[in-house]
Amino acid sequence: MKQVMEKPYLLLNCEKGGIHGIHVKLAAILEEHFEVIPYDEFLKNKNFYSHKIKIFYLWTYANAPKHSLLQCLPNLKIVLSPGAGLDHLDLPLISSYGVKVANTPLTVSSATADFGMALLLASARSLIEGVKMAALPDIRYITFNWMGVDITGATLGIIGMGKIGYKIAQRAKGFEMKILYHNRKRRSKEDENAVGAKYCEKMEDLLQQSDFVMLVVNLTPETTKLIGKHELKLMKPTATLINICRGQVVDQDALVEALQNGVIHAAALDVTYPEPLPRDHPLLKLQNVIVTAHIGARTYSTNKKVVERMLANGLAALAGLPIPDEVTQSQKKSSN
User: Which residues contact 157 (CB under 8 A, 6 or more apart)?
Assistant: First the structure.
């Protein structure tokens, strides 16, 4: 009789299904290769599972690996995290246990860039207000005095010209926008020419010239509150700030003040701090603000690619093979 080999055990940091868990169809992909243990089940049977778990799979930002968890998983090989950001992980701590880390930076770039442009368009053309106006119960005619802002010919300033930032530039070119960018490292002339982008060595120059400013940076100590009161004052009073990276990159109190006082025209935010915002937060009440629930990469196709890429990283780690998206030492240093 052929012996059935036991699948390796994978600890999921959330539930399977439900509004806070991984989609059941995506969980099924993992279950083809692993015994998938939801976090609550692990906590109820910690003694049974602790020595079996070899992969810790983060699908949300909840239950990130801490000392208390890592010390009870002696056979853990790798922590898998979706997307590009690493700020939710204590990388030195994980590394001190001899555990590797991998993320999926390439899989979310297109969907996130699409959503960045969606926020830009929705804010510029007053899309949310238009939807509300059309649904008013007592509306009798459509006003022709409701004016948006032109995209074509406007200047977009991209802060952070990595994979996502460059894809945004590619999309903005299609809208005939003028493109400025600020980045730690200047891109090649070939890259710049392909999208018609102009490099601003000083972020201040970009802020002063842009009609739309889009934030696409990693969260590090250097980028925390990168945009504060001083930077907002440099922007045009007609400008819009768009944030699709991390909420902590913007000083939210300064942003509220700038929006209330007409220092800038509008803001469109897929990320805030915290997430979700308190229900009475001013950003949720201002008419010149769009706030979405960190859904930049939330399409089924993209999420399926994320799961498949995380799966490839995990299987490589267990087989002792090179891990496609292993977080390097330089990435760890830049995230601390």
Answer: 180, 181, 182, 200, 206, 207, 209, 210, 212, 213, 214
Structure tokens at 62: 């909840």
Q: Which residues contact 187 (CB under 8 A, 6 or more apart)?
A: 161, 166, 181, 197, 199
In our burial notation (b when 16+ CB lie closer than 10 A, e otherwise), range 145-178 reads eeeebebeebbbbbbbbbbbbbbbbbbbbeeebb
| Mean pLDDT taken over the chain | 94
Active site residue 294: yes
Q: Nearest to residue 159, comparing CAs of 189, 127, 126, 203?
A: 203
Active site residue 275: yes
**Which of 294, 298, 308, 326 is labelled catalytic?**
294
pTM: 0.91
Using an 8 Å Cβ cutoff, are 181 and 198 in contact? yes
DSSP letter assigned to residue 290: E
Tokens 């004016």 correspond to what residue? 147
Active-site option among 171, 187, 246, 265: 246
pLDDT tens, 201-253?
999 999 999 999 999 999 999 999 999 999 999 999 999 999 999 999 999 99
Q: How many residues does the chain have?
A: 336
Residue 230 a catalytic site member: no
Lookup: tokens for 9: 């055990």
Structure tokens at 335: 């995230």
Amino acid at the residue 256: V
